[in-house]
Model the fold of this input.
Amino acid sequence: MSMWWSLHLRREAASVPLARRLLMGTMETAGVDPDVSYDLSVALSEACANAVEHGGATVAEGAAGAYRVTAYLDGEKCRIEVADSGPGFVPVTMHASDTAEHGRGLYLIQELADHVHFGTKPGGRGGAVISFDKILKWREDTPLVTA
Done:
């Protein structure tokens, strides 16, 4: 089975649970194990929150007020990409403490996903891109997986 969807969202806090609910609904419908779905939804929420908070310091073609979420379910893997129009990533040499209020999102994404890539959009226009993959596990009663 292979499917994908893409959302163009405003950089508003209300967009984060919207993206999370869409991902959870897709995973449930496809028959993905609830624990894997939960991990991916938390990672997506962190990536979206990062885009909302930091993703619009520059104005590029009027897109400073938006970000994009794309999810791919392809065979045994899910890939999620969140792209914004902010300044991109600045290398960080330390991570936030376990009790910090901010700064733990990127670390959490790395812990929940199997493979993570943090980058800046090509072309010199700026904008951060977070993509992360996770190997899927399926429920036993999954209707969309072929035996």
